[in-house]
Design goal:
Helices cover 35% and strands 33% of the residues. It has a single domain (2-121), classed as OB fold (Dihydrolipoamide Acetyltransferase, E2P) (Beta Barrel). The protein is built from 4 helices and 5 strands, in the order αβααββαββ. It starts with a helix and ends with a strand. It has helices spanning 2-23, 40-46, 52-60, 87-91; strands at 31-39, 65-69, 74-79, 99-108, 111-121.
Length: 124
């Protein structure tokens, strides 16, 4: 399970990096979504949301954290416009909370990425 999770995380990371580099040149309007943070590998493979401890453990193991838009019922890979910091590091304080996330959305070949520039606790 750990090897399978690591392989899934590595494949997803390659897709994210390719998608992010391809899409950065596009211009889009910022959107604000409300939802929660999830372990992408666990969420996609099991179809179930995890508790905050499971998401934190998975992120510390190197799996990417994603954003689940509860209204649209859609998962986004979260990226940061600046490349000197990892998204997981920025997202960890918000695991287990209902949050808003603001950024530009890019979709290519079935993968949706939100390049986040703001996150906070949601009141919705």
């Amino acid at each position: 399970m750990v090897i399978q999770s690591a392989i899934g995380g590595a494949i997803l990371l390659v897709v994210v990096l390719q998608s992010t580099s391809i899409c950065v040149a596009q211009t889009r309007k910022d959107v604000t979504l409300h939802g929660e943070l999830v372990d992408i590998v666990g969420f996609v493979s099991s179809g179930a949301k995890q508790d905050a401890d499971a998401v934190s453990k998975s992120a510390k193991a190197g799996n990417p954290i994603g954003f689940y838009d509860t209204k649209a019922r859609k998962v986004y890979v979260v990226g940061l416009p600046q490349v000197n910091r990892g998204a997981n590091e920025t997202l960890m304080p918000y695991v287990g909370l209902r949050v808003f996330i603001t950024g530009k959305i890019y979709t290519k070949n079935g993968v949706s990425v939100i390049l986040m520039h703001d996150i906070g606790k949601s009141i919705k």
